[in-house]
Structures are given as C-alpha cells and as structure tokens.
Amino acid sequence: MEPARLGFHKIVADILRRAPSEDAVRIGWQLVSGSRVSQRTTVLGLSEGVLRVRVPDASWRIQLAEFVPQYLAALDSMLGAKVQRIEFVSEEKKAAHRA
Q1: What percent of the chain has pLDDT over 90?
Q2: Domain 2-98 adopts which CATH fold?
Q3: pLDDT in tens, 15-33
Q4: Domain range annotation of the chain
C-alpha cells in the first residue's frame, strides 16, 4: 500500500506546484488539515511565507497550534518551501479589530 500512497503524493505535489499559488495553498491546506478542519477554517492568504488561516474561535487557534509542525511538513512536501509559518486568526479577533 505504501508505493501507491507515495505515487499519489507525488501526483498531488506535481499538480499543486503547477497551480496558481493561492489555489495551491488553499487546496494544500484542505488536504493536510483534513475535511473536518478545512470545513471550519478559511485560508486568508499567503504572504512572505506566512499562511493565514481563519478559525472559529480562540479554542480552535490553541488546538490547531499543536499540529503546526505536521501541517508545515506536509505542506512543504506538497508545495515546496512556500509556507514557513502558519498564523491562525479567530473570528473573535477579527470582530474585535472591527470595533
């Protein structure tokens, strides 16, 4: 089963490296974070190696922060070194900035 997985991974990485940067990062995030997390989060963008992801609240920020090393390693293998850091921005924080 491992050879099939590696082949699939190479195909996905090749497709993402050819895609426009914003699309590649968004799709890469969906793949590495999984369906439950990606349904509740939104990629805000990638700037200077920092991937900004909106999350529902501070609890999500704390929980997802624990997975950053795995997310970065997976994104690196798919996208190359485009993402060097992930910043989680909560809806609460966004609302507070509007006031």
Answers
A1: 61
A2: GMP Synthetase; Chain A, domain 3 (3.30.300)
A3: 778 878 888 999 999 999 9
A4: 2-98
